[in-house]
């Protein structure tokens, strides 16, 4: 005897909603309005004092899909630090819900184990990017915003492009203002859309996100970059979110008012940064798709990985 469709739908919806709410409340911390609250990074040392700059002393732990880790790969490439700061490329482990090391390091298979190897008893999140000191086997910093400042300023002696300053003093105020705006509404804004647990939280995040993108598209009519005519760290911070936008956030995170390729100036801005020497090599589109759609289970329970869309703004520039 066939089960009535209304019964299947109502039962399925009720069970799924409860499981979804349970998973989201565990995986995506929220406030009482259902808004996603990103936890603070815990390791915040600078490269000074105990940690002095030296070639081949520090190592970056990164994952291709992560926009925060991607910032550090772009700055490393632009500064020409490939020969003095090595990387370990981690793999997103969909079942364990964390990062796996490509080979055993200090007896560890996972990033979480490595965090605990350096800090026994550590119970916080084990995130990428993470800057590791091979001399003392300790974590220097796991906040991307700070790691890129360190890479920009502290390793000039070993950089192929020491002359490139991505945070000139004269632009400091403007950099900080934009950092605040884009963190809240764009970098974390896309996650606030995707991880919202109420309709109101999603609507709010969505409108803040597109208000900022509209504003930036306007601004780029009169200048090349966020702070004027020079590329700065704030552009890199925006870039790594924008490059994932049409691929992932537009669909999986419901950031769907427009795509970046619908913005006349933002798409050119994105092309321009993508085509700076070394930057395209830091973008692994297939892994981005695989990790977001494959690993963020509560958002894509069927596990189907979409095809790579045409990203015309990247191709057109290359032709
Ligand atoms: N505020 C951090 C955020 C880093 C972050 O959330 N990384 C994610 C990947 S996109 C991660 O490693 N998550 C693993 C976890 O939370 O266990 C930063 O900018 O460095």
General description of the model:
With 319 residues, the chain is α+β, with helices and mostly antiparallel strands. The protein has 2 domains: 58-158, Glutaredoxin, CATH 3.40.30; 169-318, Glutathione S-transferase Yfyf (Class Pi), Chain A, domain 2. It has 11 helices and 6 strands. A 6-stranded mixed beta sheet has the order 4-3-2-1-5-6, with helices on both faces.
Distance between the termini: 60 Å
Profile the largest sheet.
Answer: 6 strands, mixed
CATH topology title of the largest domain: Glutathione S-transferase Yfyf (Class Pi), Chain A, domain 2
**Average residue pLDDT:** 95
Total count of helical runs of at least 4 residues = 11
Number of spatially distinct domains: 2
- Uncertain segments: none
Physical arrangement of strands within the biggest beta sheet: 4-3-2-1-5-6
Radius of gyration: 21 Å
Can you write the helix and strand succession as a string? HEHEEEHEEHHHHHHHH
Strand content: 5-15%
Helix content: 40-55%
CATH class of the largest domain: Mainly Alpha
In short:
By secondary structure, the chain is α+β, with helices and mostly antiparallel strands. Helices cover 45% and strands 10% of the residues.
Which terms would index this structure?
alpha+beta; binds glutathione; single chain; six-stranded mixed beta sheet; 6 strands; Glutathione S-transferase Yfyf (Class Pi), Chain A, domain 2; Glutaredoxin; 319 residues; 10% strand
Give the secondary structure arrangement, pairings included.
Elements (H helix, E strand, L loop, with lengths): L4 H23 L30 E6 L3 H13 L6 E8 L4 E8 L2 E3 H8 L11 E4 L4 E4 L2 H10 L18 H16 L1 H6 L4 H21 L13 H17 L14 H11 L10 H11 L16 H7 L1
Parallel strand pairs: 1-2
Antiparallel strand pairs: 1-5, 2-3, 3-4, 5-6
Helix pairs in contact: 2-4, 2-8, 5-7, 5-8
């Amino acid at each position: 005897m066939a089960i009535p469709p209304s019964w299947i739908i109502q039962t399925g919806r009720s069970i799924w909603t409860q499981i979804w709410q349970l998973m989201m409340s565990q995986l995506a911390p929220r406030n009482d309005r259902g808004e996603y609250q990103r936890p603070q990074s815990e390791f915040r040392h600078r490269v000074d004092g105990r940690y002095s700059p030296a070639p081949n002393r520090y190592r970056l732990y990164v994952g291709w899909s992560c926009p925060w880790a991607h910032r550090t790969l772009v700055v490393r490439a632009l500064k020409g630090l490939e020969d003095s700061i090595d990387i370990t490329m981690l793999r997103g482990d969909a079942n364990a819900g964390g990062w796996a090391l490509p080979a055993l390091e200090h007896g560890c298979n996972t990033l979480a184990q490595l965090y605990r190897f350096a800090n026994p008893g550590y119970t916080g999140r084990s995130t990428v990017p993470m800057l590791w000191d091979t001399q003392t086997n300790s974590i220097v910093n796991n906040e991307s915003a700070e790691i890129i400042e360190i890479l920009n300023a502290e390793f000039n002696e070993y950089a192929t492009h020491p002359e490139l300053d991505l945070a000139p003093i004269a632009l400091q105020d403007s950099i900080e203002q934009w950092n605040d705006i884009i963190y809240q509404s764009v970098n974390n804004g896309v996650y606030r859309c995707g991880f919202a647990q109420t309709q109101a939280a999603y609507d709010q995040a969505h409108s803040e996100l597109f208000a900022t993108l509209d504003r930036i598209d306007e601004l780029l009519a009169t200048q090349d970059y966020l702070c004027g005519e020079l590329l700065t760290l704030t552009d890199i911070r925006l870039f790594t979110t924008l490059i994932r936008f049409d691929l992932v956030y537009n669909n999986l995170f419901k950031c769907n008012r427009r795509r970046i390729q619908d913005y006349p100036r933002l798409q050119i801005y994105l092309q321009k940064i993508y085509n700076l020497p070394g930057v395209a090599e830091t973008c692994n589109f297939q892994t981005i798709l695989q990790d977001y759609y494959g690993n963020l289970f509560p958002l894509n329970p069927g596990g189907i990985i979409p095809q790579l869309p045409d990203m015309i703004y990247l191709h057109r520039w290359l032709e």
